[in-house]
Amino acid sequence: GAGVSQSPSNKVTEKGKDVELRCDPISGHTALYWYRQRLGQGLEFLIYFQGNSAPDKSGLPSDRFSAERTGESVSTLTIQRTQQEDSAVYLCASSLYSHNEQFFGPGTRLTVL
Amino acid sequence: AQKVTQAQTEISVVEKEDVTLDCVYETRDTTYYLFWYKQPPSGELVFLIRRNSFDEQNEISGRYSWNFQKSTSSFNFTITASQVVDSAVYFCALSEAGGKAAGNKLTFGGGTRVLVKP
Q1: Gap between the Cα atoms of A43 and A46, Å rounded
Q2: What pLDDT does B100 receive?
Q3: How far apart are CA B73 and CA B5, in angstroms?
Q4: B35-74 residues touching A, CB cutoff 8 A
Q5: Is A5 in contact with A107 (CB distance < 8 Å)?
Q6: Which chain B residues touch A43 with a CB distance below 8 Å?
Q7: DSSP chain A
């Protein structure tokens, strides 16, 4: 079956612009997660969705970052007024229920010039 | 707060050698889950194993094996008879069952890069 998909795969933007990153989880997965991976580093948790609600937003680094999920399916991560330190790979994962193994998408590589 | 430490940043071996990756974790929860993921050069994370805190049995899957020891808060991973295709970054991760809003956010270690030379 289809895995987690993300778009775009690469995004280059200028400092100060807004960007939207999309995640399509595995069909039927109730839990959805966003992580960020800076070059050569581990993954940092950003936000967790259960259904369309976000019980845990503790990892969002600033109020420039927001995310939503609709239809218990697609999620969008929005970064407003991008900064160079936002450059990273943004990874989305989904799991059947919380506490199950998470399956990751290929990521979106964001470069802020 | 939960924390995962992978002290080895890079390991280089020759094909057919065994390689063991160390993972040490910290948590205050009595119920938690431990994971290993592989990130090959293509970049996509591949799930390898999930273990809950009540199951200390070691596990073997083909050339992979895992040694979970609660007494030392470690969950080490061994690749036996390594192959070039095993070259990747390997991440250990932890989630706490009693975490915020009962979610399952993963806290990752910094990763260990394994390079298997032919």
Answers
A1: 9
A2: 53
A3: 11
A4: 35, 37, 42-45, 47, 50
A5: no
A6: 91, 93, 106, 108
A7: ----EEE-SEEEE-TT--EEEEEEPPTT--EEEEEEE-TTS-EEEEEEEETTEEEE-TT--STTEEEEE-TTS-EEEEE-S--GGG-EEEEEEEESSTTSPPEE---EEEEE-
Best mutation target among A32, A60, A98 (most B Cβ atoms within 10 Å) is A98
Selecting from B47, B102, B108 the residue whose C-beta is nearest the C-beta of A43 gives B108
For residue B31, the Cα-to-chain-centroid distance in whole angstroms is: 18
pLDDT, tens digit, for every residue of B16-37?
999 999 999 999 888 899 999 9
Can the peptide bond before residue A8 be classed as cis, meaning omega within 30 degrees of 0? yes
Instruction: Round to whole Å and give the CA distance between A110 and A88.
Output: 5
pLDDT digits (tens, 9 = 90+) for B36-88: 999 999 888 999 998 989 888 888 889 999 999 999 999 999 999 999 999 99
